[in-house]
């Protein structure tokens, strides 16, 4: 009874509702949140790993893998994608598995992006057929390195299809929040032992920073080679010099020497297609708040 009376007294003694308190101080601005970051690969075409672009975070470095040809079946990786950057370089990297057994196959050829030809070099400067088992360091010296990076912004390649950089296209894109990350040369695809693989033209892997007529290293068993009549790289050319030509004439088959630095410089200046890799500006990203990595954004 006493407990009940005390509870009633406490309840009955409550005062009137007070006035609302003062407003608190403004909170900190929300941070931009990337809910689905872009994972991208970069290839140096040198025997040292490239750096990630500003604002990116490096995940790993490795060796630049292009594609594998097994019994005339080809599977490859876009140079834009992280799957093209293997942490280790090694030959005999595939096994053929059937219902009851797995085995190595002599029909396996793997292809790796090579180091680009240097100014003082010709194709004869690359090693001849070399055994990886006998001299692994010599082989690795001529294999391109790569880096895989996490990015908060999208990358896109823009090609001019001419010998000039696509400045008009870049200026137009800048109006919608894009800026130039770097320039390069318009790479299409590479063949090895008769078949090949390439990168989609919108991917940044199709815009290589260096032009090189020696573009791959082939492994078969322990044998590694860089020079072969089977190896062909394909690049976008300047279309303007075709104006007025008869498509049935042999002029399309004109040869350009790329043996010496002077030869290569002339080819680059007069025939080779140029490109920019564009990135979304920080300002454009900030305006979006939090977002998903929309491939069409």
Labels describing this entry:
single chain, alpha+beta, 6-stranded antiparallel beta sheet, globular, disordered C terminus
What does this protein structure show overall?
This protein has 297 residues and is an alpha+beta fold. Helices cover 13% and strands 30% of the residues. The chain has helices at residues 2-12, 136-141, 167-174, 261-270, 282-286; strands spanning 38-43, 57-70, 73-76, 85-86, 96-97, 102-103, 108-113, 130-131, 145-151, 155-159, 178-191, 196-198, 207-208, 216-220, 223-225, 232-235, 274-280. Mean pLDDT is 86; it is low at 289-297.
Structural class: alpha+beta
What integer value in Å does the Rg equal? Answer: 29 Å
Number of helical elements: 5
Indicate the proportion of strand residues: 25-35%
Coarse shape: globular
Mean pLDDT reading? 86
Largest sheet: 9 strands, antiparallel
Instruction: Indicate the low-confidence ranges by residue numbers.
Output: 289-297
End-to-end separation: 72 Å
Order of helices and strands: HEEEEEEEEHEEHEEEEEEHEH
Using DSSP, what is the number of strands? 17
Give the helix level as a range of percent.
Answer: 10-25%
């Amino acid at each position: 009874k006493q407990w009940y009376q005390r509870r009633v007294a406490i309840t009955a003694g409550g005062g009137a509702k007070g006035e609302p308190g003062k407003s608190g101080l403004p909170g900190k601005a929300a941070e931009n949140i990337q809910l689905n970051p872009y994972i991208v690969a970069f290839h140096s075409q040198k025997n040292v790993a490239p750096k990630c672009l500003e604002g990116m975070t490096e995940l790993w470095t490795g060796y630049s893998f292009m594609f594998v040809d097994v019994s005339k079946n080809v599977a490859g990786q876009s140079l834009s994608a992280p799957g093209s950057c293997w942490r280790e370089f090694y030959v005999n990297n595939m096994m053929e598995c059937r219902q009851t057994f797995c085995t190595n196959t002599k029909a396996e050829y793997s292809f790796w992006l090579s180091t680009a030809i240097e100014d003082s070099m010709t194709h004869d400067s690359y090693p001849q057929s070399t055994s990886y088992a006998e001299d692994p360091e010599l082989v690795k010296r001529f294999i391109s390195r790569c880096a895989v990076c996490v990015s908060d912004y999208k990358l896109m390649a823009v090609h001019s299809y001419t010998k000039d950089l696509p400045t008009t296209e870049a200026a137009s894109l800048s109006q919608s929040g894009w800026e130039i990350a770097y320039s390069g040369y318009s790479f299409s695809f590479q063949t090895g032992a008769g078949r090949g693989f390439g990168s989609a033209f919108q991917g940044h892997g199709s815009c290589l920073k260096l032009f090189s007529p020696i573009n791959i290293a082939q492994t078969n068993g322990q044998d590694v080679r860089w020079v072969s009549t089977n190896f062909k790289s394909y690049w976008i050319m300047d279309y303007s010099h075709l104006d007025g030509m008869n498509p049935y004439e042999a002029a399309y088959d004109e040869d350009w020497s790329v043996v010496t630095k002077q030869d290569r410089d002339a080819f680059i200046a007069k025939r080779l297609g140029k490109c920019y890799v564009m990135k979304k500006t920080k300002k454009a990203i900030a305006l979006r708040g939090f977002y998903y990595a929309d491939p069409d954004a």
